[in-house]
Design goal:
heterodimer, A: mainly alpha, two-stranded antiparallel sheet, globular, B: Helix Hairpins
């Protein structure tokens, strides 16, 4: 088990180093990247099976006591989310290999190694058991995302990159201040010890810490009113990079909130958080309706969907937390697939703008199907995974009597369907406008892209197929989070 | 708690945040550096009173200063150093592209501004 945890974090870093060493040799570079990402993904799947069978496993790095050293904790929550995240990165990298030699492709010499570093950061963020290592993991993710976002150095990327970088730097600074506050108040940064000590603090100090970290993680997760950086920066990056960002980065923020605010017992913040969740859902989807570019529409939907997960968390019940976890599992692949389909649309139509494309359903029926399934899932239409996840979130809210937020959730769901219909009408039906089009990917590349997207679509269908099992596992993970005693016991036997 | 250090944290944060609200990236870089210093001092303050260097055998453990915040601080310094360099590279790139290092308006702002100036149609003034 120790080996699995190490592989998930270290293998991608080694792969990054190897692929940089052989960067002028394309096949070697790709093999190194795919081997690193693949072994991490494989390790995380085995980890899920092991944790589901044997329970939480912890690794004290270097054998230090939890007060002093770094602790890595593979509990059921981490083990559930990690395989989904790492598999998405792997599939996106395969897609990126097919997309080479088109104008939309990322620079493979840089994007492969950086994606590996980002993967390592994601693994570390999910597995870490202390607040400061979480900060380091965030930095690992963010630094690689800064470079991935701006590495082509064109004008719109540098412009959007500046906002993105400055906003996230400010959030990271606030994070460090938060660590200092927590350390002053409790004398530790270990989450298990914090789960013991923070609930004993005075109400004012406790809620201050909770609200502070709500802002810190909320900026990363793009909740209302901290989301303005997201829809501006995501669409400027190459599609594969946006797919990873949209699928994972904001979710790491939500993941941290689900872990931190549940373990530290921040129930008192619930009502305010529910209001924020409602505003995030509705404003995100309204923003999406005003856009006329596939990638920008999808970026606004990222925000709207974050609202649902935040809503599940804000209920602070086992059902609500379980629903938020299930929503995470559903949302990460669906969002990544939609951006990959956006990449296919760019490839076939020459642009992701709604005005310049049309009639794709007739020419590429497979792409139309691969768009329709995740799009319906995003809107929450049965029998796709989005329906199960939304049903879980909304029924958890109904149990708590949150009428306003339930209405907001249903409204956002309807508007999501409207906005997906808009993409469908403009891109897949109707006629095509003429204009200069960049050269599409060669035949072999197109086949790789289609296969990768189809695999990812199949993955989203698996989520709805195994929704019952996943909900059971999520409920079990949520019970552990709502009852910090089991987490504390696992870290300090 | 040392009042002088706390005042230093407050002062550095105030100046840093003020600089961060500027439009030019070189000011933002200075602001970010100051904020980085503020977090370092805050973390050190969080570690309790100063004492002897935390090296085994040099002093009694209860007279030593707390080594954990120092380790955290070191990590934070390295990260903020690297990010400052990245910001400088970004400012240089922006200068090459536009002749200045100003943070430009985002797409929505420019669209709204253009729609107000030309009320005939929502023409997109910028190529994405």
């Amino acid at each position: 088990m120790t080996v699995l945890i190490s592989v998930a974090i270290v293998a991608p870093l080694l792969a990054a180093a190897c692929s940089l060493a052989v960067r002028s040799h394309p096949p070697g570079r790709d093999i190194a990247v795919l081997a690193g990402l693949g072994s991490a993904a494989l390790a995380s799947h085995i980890m899920l099976v092991t944790v589901a069978r044997d329970g939480t496993h912890t690794v004290a790095v270097g054998g230090w006591a939890p007060e002093l050293g770094i602790v890595l904790v593979a509990d059921l929550f981490a083990a559930l989310i990690l395989p989904v995240a790492l598999t998405i990165i792997f599939v996106v990298e395969v897609f990126a290999i097919g997309q080479r030699r088109t104008v939309w492709a990322a620079n493979p010499q840089l994007s492969g190694p950086l994606l590996c570093v980002l993967t390592s950061g994601v693994s570390l963020a999910f597995l870490t058991g202390d607040l400061f290592t979480l900060f380091v993991a965030f930095e690992l993710i963010l630094v690689s995302s800064y470079v991935l976002l701006t590495h082509q150095g064109n004008r719109s990327q540098v412009r959007a990159g500046m906002t993105y970088v400055v906003m996230n730097l400010l959030a990271s600074t606030l994070f460090l201040f938060g660590v200092a506050f927590v350390y002053t108040a409790t004398g530790t940064v270990n989450m298990a010890l914090l789960a013991e000590r923070i609930p004993q603090l005075e109400t004012g100090v406790r809620l201050g810490i909770g609200a502070w970290f709500l802002v810190v993680f909320g900026t990363k997760a793009a909740i209302f009113p901290l989301f303005s950086w997201l829809p501006d920066s995501y669409p400027t990056a190459p599609t594969t990079i946006t797919a990873v960002f949209a699928g994972l980065l904001t979710k790491v923020g939500i993941y941290s909130m689900i872990r931190f605010h549940n373990l530290m017992g921040m129930e008192d913040l619930g009502p305010i958080m529910l209001l924020v969740a409602a505003l995030t859902m509705v404003l995100g989807v309204l923003g999406a309706l005003a856009q006329s570019d596939v990638k920008r529409i999808l970026s606004f939907h990222v925000i709207s969907q974050i609202g649902y997960m935040f809503m599940g968390l804000s209920l602070f019940t086992v059902a609500g937390t379980a629903a938020a976890i299930l929503f995470l599992i559903h949302h990460m692949p669906v969002k990544a697939v939609l951006f990959l389909v956006g990449g296919l649309i760019e490839n076939h139509e020459g642009s992701s703008s709604l005005d310049r494309s049309g009639g794709l359903a007739g020419r590429e029926p497979l792409v139309a199907v691969m768009f329709a399934i995740p799009a319906l899932s995003l809107a929450g239409i049965p029998p796709f995974s989005g329906f199960v996840a939304k049903l879980a979130v909304i029924s958890a809210a109904v149990d708590q009597g949150g009428t306003v937020v339930v209405v907001a959730a249903l409204l956002a769901g309807g508007l999501t369907l409207l906005s997906m219909t808009k993409i469908w009408n403009e891109v897949f039906w109707g006629g095509r406008t003429d204009g200069p089009r960049p050269r599409p990917a060669p035949r072999r590349g197109r086949r790789i892209m289609h296969t990768a997207t189809a695999l990812a679509v199949a993955g989203t269908l698996m989520v709805s197929l195994f929704a019952g099992t996943l909900l059971d596992l999520s409920t079990e993970a949520a019970e552990d989070l709502r009852r910090p005693a089991s987490y504390i016991a696992a870290v300090r036997p | 708690m040392n009042a002088a250090l706390l005042l230093a944290v407050g002062g550095l944060t105030a100046v840093g945040l003020y600089l961060l609200t500027g439009r030019s990236l070189s000011r933002i870089i200075l602001g970010y550096s100051l904020l980085g210093h503020a977090t370092v001092v805050a973390l050190i303050t969080a570690g309790g009173p100063a004492g002897w260097p935390p090296i085994a055998g040099q002093a009694a453990p209860e007279d030593m200063s707390n080594p954990l915040p120092q380790a955290l601080t070191l990590t934070a310094i390295v990260i903020s150093f690297g990010l400052t360099l990245f910001l400088l590279a970004l400012a240089r790139r922006q200068r090459t592209l536009s002749g200045d290092d100003l943070v430009e308006d985002d797409l929505e702002d420019r669209r709204i501004a253009a729609a107000e100036n030309a009320p005939t149609g929502p023409e997109d003034p910028v190529a994405t």
